[in-house]
Model the fold of this input.
Amino acid sequence: MLKLDFHPSGRHVLQIPGPSPVPDRLLRAMSYPTIDHRGPEFAMLGLKVLAGIKRIFKTTQPVIIYSSSGTGAWEGALVNTLCPGDRILMYETGHFASLWREMAENLGLRPERIGRDGVEGWRRGVEADLIEQRLRADGGHAIKAVCVVHNETSTGVTSDIASVRRAIDAAGHPALLLVDTISGLASADYRHDAWGADVTVSGSQKGLMLPPGLGFNAVSQKALHAHAAARLPRSYWDWTPILKANETGYWPTTPNTNLLYALSEAIEMIEEEGLDRVFARHARLAEACRAAVRGWGLDIQCADPQVYSPVLTGVMMPEGVDANAVRQRIAETFDLSLGTGLGRMAGRMFRIGHLGDCNDLSLMAALAGCEMGLKLSGVRLAGSGVVAAMDLLARTEVHSLTKVA
Ligand SMILES: *Cc1c(COP(=O)(O)O)cnc(C)c1O
Done:
């Protein structure tokens, strides 16, 4: 690990799947002086970010912005829409889905796990027909919500949210659809309104390129309706006072002013590039990353090519290799941070993030660090993943992909 009395030359290569590297333009925006959060200037900022973030979620409905990490916004989604003891269906795609379920239990809900068992369940996306079957069996409508993770950051699997909405509708079931796209927002296509999500949860430190510290709840009219009747204890997370204050561009408590400067700037950056181009850039970098993993002769954690994540790639280590030892060696030798294996994947894999402010050469730096570190760790490689990734990037120009998308 980095020693505190040692300042390495060059830039640290932060290639974990969130926090993602913060562009200098956002760091500069954050360095503006903090202003009076009750003054007239603040309202202009507040109204601007509240309008802008809706376009990123692709919604015309309100988006609540919390000073919190993504986990706080998870709690916001649950406590604002549900009652003590409510049954909810929570699809397990990986570690983050299981942590959200733990939270639901802690809050006094009765979550039911759904999804394939064991490691297999962590290698593929949501199978919406399992949800449909379960909801069809719930004739009394005891299940109040279905919770799914759009981009499972622990594994590198992206789920089809529109198919989950279709499954709920096909079963004729009134359950709310709550979606975590903490790592998917502004890095993978996401459409809150078109896909019929009732609450979409996100955070600032992944695709949005901000430091950690903002959480989001995009809502639907149905979620606001449920909110009026929801009885789980809520105070800080309560949407009502926030929505009221937001009407004039303010918050009931002190908002994270400097992160809101950065959010305003990030929305501008994303819209200058264009959301579709942002998604195409992520998809192409992800493809290059997978080409590298295949070039090394290693396995990709996601077992279904249909649902490969554009945000990160999970790299499985061969039997007998401790992924954390490899990761640590890479960090110490090349000052490159990779994501660790989480939950049941601890020690079995590491994760390469390719989200946010990432381009061809930042990905190549990460892949070169991985390849050198794998060799130093004695992992037998089939060939050069770096060369495979360079070949792919040289063949596919980002704008040509954009036109197809
Ligand atoms: C990062 C992440 C979280 C946790 O967010 P925090 O900001 O760490 O609280 C939850 N779910 C997913 C899918 C994530 O990527």
